[in-house]
Amino acid sequence: MKKIEVKLTNEKYSIYIERGILELAGDKVKEIFDGEKIIIITDDNVNLLYGERLREILEKAGFIINVIIIPPGEKNKNSETLNRIYKELIKFQTTRSDMIVALGGGVVGDVAGFAASTYVRGISYVQIPTSLIAQVDSSVGGKVAINLEEGKNLIGSFYHPKMVLIDPDLLKTLDQRYFNDGVAEVIKYACIKDKKLFETLLRVKNNQELNDNITDIICKCCEIKKEIVQRDERDKSERMLLNFGHTIGHAIEKIFKYEKYTHGEAVAIGMHLITIQSEKLELSKMGAAIQIKEILIKFDLPYEIDKKYYEEIRKEIANDKKREGSILNHVLLKEIGKGYVSKIPIVEFSKFI
Ligand code: GLY
Q: Is 330's C-beta closer than 6 angstroms to any atom of ligand 1?
């Protein structure tokens, strides 16, 4: 079993990665939680697959279990779902000495984590991510949030889980499109920090080969993220690298109302477009964009969008609520494996799309 320790200024927690680790969730949870009651928060889809099994495992370990089931999808990562969670937590008489377990993909992890950070001013939670995107990225690092109509993740906090349990076997039930959604985030890590990982992605022949090596790839991504988060927990400098492709990606997701493109697909387009332009502007070494495109095609990910949407994307980015005043931090590649944050006036972003 692989163990990665995330050591932060005021706390630390472990990420455990192992095929079949879900079966050990009872023992693992006992190591970090001595309370009685656990509330599993999951969505309709994941509940059908793993909800009952996790309940049995945790009950066998002696915990009292309640389950809150939310509707799936980015569109439901909102205040309505959050309010429903609060009401059910109250109904189950949840107190600060109880704990939440987030069982699901990025949406479940984000909204359950945000509920944990705010309910009675904060109760403990554990992440059990079930999608590739959550296993390589969103379950680690403590960013929890909900969306507003005006944009993604506009209400949120930094609130770290007590533990992350990653079971790559849970990916077996993941639809191919959603597996590839997570591959986009793996490509991101390779682009910003790890040339060797990028070369692996260039070398693997297909999805099956990637899947055969997925445990090692998840470990690599979690290690990269842990290092970054330890150095910049609050997203003030280096952590911004994790937003490579995300400025354009978030705009695309929003324009298409979180329906046409998954998060990873939108980020895939963002990574490719920004790299093409930064090569043209001689801010990146030539050759990266073509290689990114090659990998995106291999994993059935989009790499472009009709130019008729460019104006709308520019407008969305101009309204980005997460800029610093009139400055936008955006992430470019010096070359593959070397991302950097570039600060530009928001009005100049049009050079990049
Ligand atoms: N997913 C980006 C971050 O955690 O900073």
A: no
Residue ranges of the chain assigned to CATH 1.20.1090.10: 176-352
**Inter-residue contact 305 to 322 (CB < 8 Å):** no
348 Cβ contact partners less than 8 Å away, ≥ 6 residues apart: none
Where does the chain hold its CATH 3.40.50.1970 domain(s)? Answer: 2-173
> Kind of pairing, strands 64-70 and 37-43?
parallel
Q: List Cβ neighbours of 148 (8 Å cut-off, separation of 6 or more).
A: 78, 79, 154, 155
The number of the ligand 1 atom at minimal distance from the alpha carbon of 140 is: 4
Q: Is the CB of 238 under 6 A from ligand 1?
A: no
pTM confidence score: 0.96
pLDDT tens by residue, 96-142: 999 999 999 999 999 999 999 999 999 999 999 999 999 999 999 99
- Nearest atom (ligand 1) to Cα of 141: 4
pLDDT in tens, 30-52: 999 999 999 999 999 999 999 99
On whether the CB atoms of residues 33 and 238 are closer than 8 A, the answer is: no
Return the axis-axis angle of helices 195-203 and 176-193, rounded to nearest 10°.
140
Buried b (16+ CB within 10 A) or exposed e, 312-345: ebbebbeebeebeeeebbbbbbeebbbbebeebe
CATH architecture of 176-352: Up-down Bundle (1.20)
For residue 116 and ligand 1, the question of a CB distance below 6 A is answered with no
